[in-house]
Structure formats: C-alpha cells, structure tokens
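### Sample
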Amino acid sequence: MKLQHLRQQLFTQGSDALLIFSDINIRYLSEFSGHAATILLTGKNSYLLTDYRYVEQAKVQAEAFTVICRQREKQSLASLIAELLQQDGCQQLMFESGHIDVNAWLQIEHEIRRLETIKQIEGVTGAVEKLRYHKSEPEITAISQAAQIADQALANILPLIKEGITERELAIELEYQMALLGSEEVSFATILLFGERSALPHGIPSNRKLKPGDLILIDFGAVMNGYRSDMTRTYVFGKASAEQRQVYQLVRDAQQAALEALRPGIRGSDLYRHSADILRASDYKNHAGEGLGHGVGLELHELPFIGPACEQSIEKACVITIEPGIYIPGWGGIRIEDDVVLAENGVEILTRAPKDLLEL
C-alpha cells in the first residue's frame, strides 16, 4: 500500500523513477532496518540496493523488494543506479535531494546524465514523509508499547530519587531500566535536570546534585520496532513552594486546553493557540516555550510541527506530542508532555505516567 501510494504520487508528477536515500524512509517503505542502502522505485520494479554487510538482512526484511548486492570494489552506486534506470527504460527521475550530500549526488548524476533515455532529473523533498504522517495500526501499537516501557521505567526509578544523586546518575538508571524492559535504544538523549537547570529546555544531564526544593524535569523515551515515544514529567524534591505549584498548574491547564481542543481537521496553529492563550494570560507569559508539540514515529520529530505558523491539519491516526512549558532562568522549568493519537473513538493518550505534581 505504501509503495502504491508513492508510485501514484510519482506518476501524478510525471515521473517514472524515484531514488530514496534516507535510512528512515527506507525502513518505512521496506522494513529494512540496516544502513548503507538505497531504494530505487521505477514503474516496473522496486529495488533495494545494499552491499555484503546487509544483503542477507535485507532479503529477510524487505520482502516486497528486489534486493541487489553491489560489489563495492567493482561497481559504484552511481553506475548500478544508471544500469537499472536504463534497464527499466526510465525517462523522468526524482530523487530525495534533502537526504544526500552534494558530492555523492554529483557522482550519481554524472552517470545518469550519460544515459540517452533520461530526459529529466528533479529533486524532491517530503514525498515519503507525507505518507508517514498517518500511522497504521501496527505503527500506533509500536509507539504505544514504547510509551508503556517509558511509563514503567519512570515508575521504577522514582524510589531511587534521593538527596545527593546527580542528574547524570539518575539519567543512566532511567535508560538502564528502559533497556531491561525491552527498549531497543533510547528515543533520544535523555533530558534530566534539577533545580535551576530545569529551565534549559534541552539541557544535558550533569553532575549537579539533587537538593531539597529542587524541580526535577525528566524528558525521555523508549523505542519499539523502530518507533519512538516521548514524554516529560516534572516533580519537586521535597515540599513544593507556592510558586512551583502555581506554575505547574498553569502548564497543566495549558496542556489540558490543547487536549480538549484536539479533533480531526484542526489546524496546528489553532491547536497551539488554545494552549498558548492560557500561558499568555499569566504572569509568566514571557517565559512560555515556543511551539506546542510535534509528530512522532520512526523519528522523534516528524510532521506536523505544531506552533503559531503550522497550517497543517491534525488528522485521524496522527500521533503527536502536546508539551507546553514555562522556563524561568535561575529558577527552573516545568514541562508536561504526552504522546497522543486521534483514534476512531477520540483522543487517546499513549503516555500514562501520573501527571499530578508529585513531591518526592
């Protein structure tokens, strides 16, 4: 079905061949999870080109493709692509211009230009990414499983949060727990920050030690079958101050407003405004984070990117994050983030760790 939709896009634009270079897009189309691969789609065939390191893996995973093992010492990728284009009589070629460096493309283009059959070559962006926007049931299931691993891993480390533990120590333990529970890797570099450092939206865990009264911001995710989860929770170590409670409730209200407004067809910019209006009406409007969330799937950040300029609509089977935040330099930051999907019966929240303000 994926290949059929992609071919329809090609033919609509007058092309009869497409080169895919992105590892993520190759995995999406073929289920091949290795590297050093290129996909060539023509009107007649679906080719996956790789070398001896991955050829057996590709034959098992990419069942819908003709897998070709290139002998690297005897044949360049460029000459192999040119050979296949000529063999299939291709005339109009598109290629993923955003996923190959200039030098590599110039070598391929040089070989292709020598073919008398090729009449036109055109770069294209986003062809596969648009297909990835809507998730299938197996994709949603994989993201949900990754979210469940993250939920349990977080619950497992909460008893370890003690005075004196460092950000780095706790982050390592969290990642270890996810691995024990079956995560293939971390979804991204774990963000785990204490106190005033929690005001860094994407800060790196340091040797900063936990002290009473500190905010604890944890942003992390697991991976199942290549699909990623992404969740943020914020806690207080010890008794929360009045201001910590106030800011936490503000962020919680902003997230809830977006969750309640989420429906099929709503534009990303409109969804953003439901949350942003609450933050802008507060005393902390100058410390609100930009944007509201993003799509998530095989990549951590996918379409749509939800913010004031997002004109893309949110549709059924789209998995997105909702993650408003307040970041105050020298004081700290509070972010609450969940993965959600527009399912047939409404909005389903995939990340289910409790969101009440915990005083640990």
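The mean pLDDT is 95. This sample (Aminopeptidase P family protein) is used throughout the tutorial notebook.
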